[in-house]
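Our consortium's second objective concerns turning raw sequence data into structural hypotheses that experimental partners can test. To show how far this objective has progressed, the report includes one record in full. It was chosen at random from the queue rather than selected for favorable results. The single chain below, 368 residues long, was entered without modification.
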Amino acid sequence: MELKKSEELLGNDVVEAFIDKFNMRGHKTDPALIQDILEKDLHLGDSELLKSTFHDEFNIPQELDPMLDKVALGLHEKHPAVVEFLVEADKRGLINYDGENSDLVIRILNYSFILEKITEKVTLDYRWGEQLFNFFFDKRAKMGIPKGVFNSFRGAYRIAGRWFVAAKLASIELVALRYIKRMNKKKFEPGSLGDKWNQKTWIAMLNLNIYEATMQDFFVKKNGNSEAGFVLTSTTTDKVTCDGQVLYHHTQGWASLYHTWNLCFITQDLPHLDLMYPKLLIPVVSNATGDYYIHARAIALVITFNMMTLRMAKNIPSPFEVPNKEELSEIWSEINRKYARELLASDEKERGNRMGFIKKFIYKRMYF
């Protein structure tokens, strides 16, 4: 869906108030800062592929307001739960900014600009993405995380000391490597055994990714958000196509719930949010339709989660912590529970009970 600019949405609404609170408007990209981010955060400063592809974008200052406009409009048009969370958090006075760390705000904006450009390019050109990922995997191996699912798990756990970080990195490694392999093969005949197996494999990998965070939320007693994750695995699409992109054909309601669920999860559970928030807020991800959402989000996740793990490898601390994050996460968790139950009711009305007896029993025991 093409986003239509609405001047009314750029007025005194909660999203624009949030943008204004952090003084994000009126900035341009800084080529020197972009190069610093490419070198220190993305470990791609010496990539000739990036230099040639984005020479003008990264070396000539670019206005950042158009990106913020898309973020604001995307939240209003596609992500009502996020907007509802911002309204509730603002009402309770839980999101405050005193002007400190303004340099970090500018850095995050520039990082978001870079991530948007790279993610968008990979979504449109998987061969370009394959070149970039192979370049990065070689550099990452020299920092203690070899290429491969099991190798990346061992390396990440040794570095981070957290099972979730290691399991997540291994699972996205599986997605990245399978994505490249799948794109380099001929298409399956629709309806063939190979096509059906391919679809089931992609859906299983997505559900694994969701279950990892869902169980983490459950263990830290964020039951509302954990329930949202459980519902996502129960209402996911049963159709995946591979034609230059791996497309999960979800409804917008499903994509919107995934978006707010994941934002809530990382707020509570992950460090280095200067890297992790942008992977969900850049327009190529947040404004994607249900068909394209997971494809774009997966690419951004592969990039950002690797960056976070490499920061841990170098013992770099998180540049900021979210004030009031426990209370914010609790509010967000309950909002997501409401939207999850609405999605489940809608899905069951249209497609019947797809949970099955055992999963339905587990669902009721865990969340009611």
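The partners drew two points from this record. The radius of gyration is 20 Å. The chain has one domain: 7-367. Both points have been shared with the crystallography group to help prioritize constructs.
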